[in-house]
Amino acid sequence: QVQLVESGGGLVQAGGSLRLSCAASGRIFRINSMGWYRQPPGKQRELVASVTSGGSTTYAGSMKGRFTIARDNAKNTVYLQMNSLKPEATAVYYCNAEVLTITPEFGVNNYWGQGTQVTVSS
Q1: What is the spatial distance between Cα 68 and Cα 41, in angstroms, rounded to a whole number?
Q2: Read out DSSP for 49-70?
Q3: pLDDT digits 0-9 by tens, 26-85
Q4: How far apart are CA 54 and CA 60, in angstroms?
Q5: Pair 39, 95: CB distance under 8 Å
Q6: Distance set, CA 43 to CA 19, 39, 59, 113, 117 (Å)
Q7: How many other C-beta atoms can be found within 10 angstroms of the C-beta atom of residue 63?
Q8: Which residues of 67-86 are buried (b: 16+ CB within 10 A; e: fewer)?
Q9: Are 84 and 62 in contact (CB under 8 A)?
């Protein structure tokens, strides 16, 4: 009942920047947190950054200082500004949201977007 749609991925040269967006829609009462994960080729999915509805942020250590996560609660949207991109950032980036729904029934669930490809060329 909740959908996450990512956008903004693409091909960028090393040192460049990209801004990813993720918009949540559906039967949303409250989004407790939203975040970005990535899955490089041949590796497991890992956290990039997350942000709560109150604005508290968490970053993977390797991302701090180069990536910035932000959210627009009114639009149920989260952004990931990626600067100084390196080839090792190449991955499929997935949006995640912890969502409280009260219709059709009460529940708290995590939802995932379909992923958006980020490729950083060297």
Answers
A1: 23
A2: EEEETT--EEE-TTTBTTEEEE
A3: 999 999 999 999 999 999 999 999 999 999 999 998 777 899 999 998 999 999 999 999
A4: 19
A5: no
A6: 23, 6, 19, 18, 15
A7: 20
A8: bbbebeeeebbbbbebeebe
A9: no
